Amino acid sequence: MTTPTIELKPSSTPLSAAEREAILANPGFGRHFTDHMVTIKWTEGRGWHDGQLVPYGPLSLDPATNVLHYAQEIFEGLKAYRQPDGTVATFRPDMNAKRFQHSAWRLGMPELPVETFVEACDALVQQDRDWVPAHGGEESLYLRPFMIATEVGLGVKPGNEYLFIVIASPAGAYFSGGVKPVSIWLSEDRVRAVPGGVGDAKTGGNYAASLLAQAEAAAKGCDQVAYLDAVEHKWVEELGGMNLYFVYGNKIVTPTLTGSLLAGVTRDSLLQVARDLGYESEEGRVSIDQWQADTESGALTEVFACGTAAVITPVGTVKRASAEWTQSGGEAGEVTMRLREALLDIQRGKTADQHGWMHKLG
């Protein structure tokens, strides 16, 4: 398979340094975008071609474009961090690239080569490197690679044309107000995904399906919704957009990947970071009743959520239809915060990258 080169066609009218710095002073999350994007096309019989770095701008789609009707769409999320010496590095882009391939396979889409995925991200970060926030804080440049089916027609089948795009957005804290414990609504009547479905693919349909339950959680006064398994409705799986971890003293446990959970990059990284810090870490199954009982007995000392956007977020309050309880006194737990700082220190280049996770761009 040939790997397309990425032709550079930079904007002649990028934002001024003053305008960019004003945005970087308070970027929020996903509200502002850099000057450029990378696009690569795929056509049946030709493969990947026409890789370009071009000015950020709208897409033009025919009303009968496949993605608008049958949702052949996948995406990823990863971050670039400013390092202490002023260089820039992305965190585990190869792992995102491999998950992107899996998502593509599951939705009947062409698999983008890992090296092409990484090269596209590199090209955008290099061009828009001034958008990567300064070293020192938690700010980063969030990258959103995604792919859509662009064939025009209403036949229900995999498309014969696709468009891969990478855009970037400077990111502050995912939740406003800093690291504050979030409240969780345990949904016992709605499921995120089923075994054999697309729960382990990063596709927009999974997130669309979570929005009603998320709205119900908000109506209950909660920040996030947690889902149970689709078969027995008892095993805790994940939040709408993040994985979960349970802390039992010196041991941390995350729900086992069953095919209906997303294999999070942050989730995987924390299993190793925890071992590096001397904790036991493992995958396992935690039931909703066990969660409640272990919290009440004191055996379960902390719970946190994790993902690329939010990094690690402590869980403070949990509600279900029949009960409500508090984790860690409603405060961020010691283990949670230690893991959070350890991971961020690797990403920001403040500690040794002993696992080779940081992809340096120079």
TrEMBL record:
UniProt xrefs under PROSITE patterns: AA_TRANSFER_CLASS_4
Modified residues (N6-(pyridoxal phosphate)lysine): 202
GO biological process: isoleucine biosynthetic process; L-leucine biosynthetic process; L-valine biosynthetic process
UniProt-listed CDD domains: BCAT_beta_family
Molecular function, one GO term: branched-chain-amino-acid transaminase activity
Amino-acid biosynthesis listed as a keyword: yes
EC number: 2.6.1.42
Annotated InterPro entries: Aminotrans_IV (IPR001544), Aminotrans_IV_CS (IPR018300), Aminotransferase-like (IPR036038), B_amino_transII (IPR005786), BCAT-like_C (IPR043132), BCAT-like_N (IPR043131), BCAT_family (IPR033939)
Top-level EC class: transferase
Pfam families reported for this sequence: Aminotran_4 (PF01063)
Pathway terms, separated by semicolons: Amino-acid biosynthesis; L-isoleucine biosynthesis; L-isoleucine from 2-oxobutanoate: step 4/4; Amino-acid biosynthesis; L-valine biosynthesis; L-valine from pyruvate: step 4/4; Amino-acid biosynthesis; L-leucine biosynthesis; L-leucine from 3-methyl-2-oxobutanoate: step 4/4
Reactions that this protein is recorded to catalyse: L-leucine + 2-oxoglutarate = 4-methyl-2-oxopentanoate + L-glutamate; L-valine + 2-oxoglutarate = 3-methyl-2-oxobutanoate + L-glutamate; L-isoleucine + 2-oxoglutarate = (S)-3-methyl-2-oxopentanoate + L-glutamate
Family: Belongs to the class-IV pyridoxal-phosphate-dependent aminotransferase family.
Name the UniProt record assigns to this protein: Branched-chain-amino-acid aminotransferase
Native species: Streptomyces xanthii
